[in-house]
Amino acid sequence: MPPQSPVDRQQIENALKRLDRLSTWLDSRYRIPGIGVRFGWDSLLGLIPVAGDIAGSLLSLYFIYEAWRIKAPSQLLIKMGGNVAVELAGGAIPILGDLFDVYWKSNRRNVVLLREHLEALLPPEHPPMPKRFQLSGWLLRLLVGLLVITGALFSVYALRLYGGL
């Protein structure tokens, strides 16, 4: 269901900003120099056998909770849960799972899914006015001014012509 008021829009935008920051910290906060591969706290937690993967998945559930809170459809929640499940299953593999955590980035994927869904629902705030319409106010004032000057000149000419001046 689309938001009904500007407050809803602002709440959704605030939630997306919050989730974006958190997903950056969890999935891509740090960069390995020279290679450019990005990783975050989720990958670091994954280095702790079993408990690290579970802790990372619990943190990832927060994204699904936020999506549920803003009334995302169940299909989207299931997709987001699938991303978390894939990361949990892939991360459970010793050593290769840690590399998989660096690659998969379920939190980032879930924020992108949620953002795409919400942007499709929200109407644009106020699209910028085309330039030709912005000039119309200026052009209208110019035309009215020219009309007033022309009218005044015509009046002076008419008064002279008919002997009033």
Number of strands: 2
Gap between N and C termini: 73 Å
Strand content: under 5%
Major β-sheet annotation: 2 strands, antiparallel
Helical/strand content category:
mainly alpha
Uncertain ranges: 1-7
What is the gyration radius calculated from CA atoms? 30 Å
Domains counted in the coordinates: how many?
2
N-to-C SSE series?
HEEHHHHHH
The overall pLDDT average reads 82
Shape: rod-shaped
| Spatial strand order of the main sheet | 1-2
* Number of alpha- plus pi-helical segments: 7
Work out the helicity level.
Answer: over 70%
Task: Summarize the structure in words.
By secondary structure, this protein is mostly helical. It has 2 domains: 6-121, no CATH class; 130-165. It contains 7 helices and 2 strands; from the N terminus they run αββαααααα. It has helices spanning 6-28, 41-45, 51-69, 74-91, 96-104, 106-121, 131-161; strands at residues 30-31, 38-39. The chain has a two-stranded antiparallel sheet with strand order 1-2. Strand 1 and strand 2 (38-39) form a beta hairpin. Helix 3 (51-69) runs antiparallel to helix 4. The radius of gyration is 30 Å and the shape is rod-shaped.
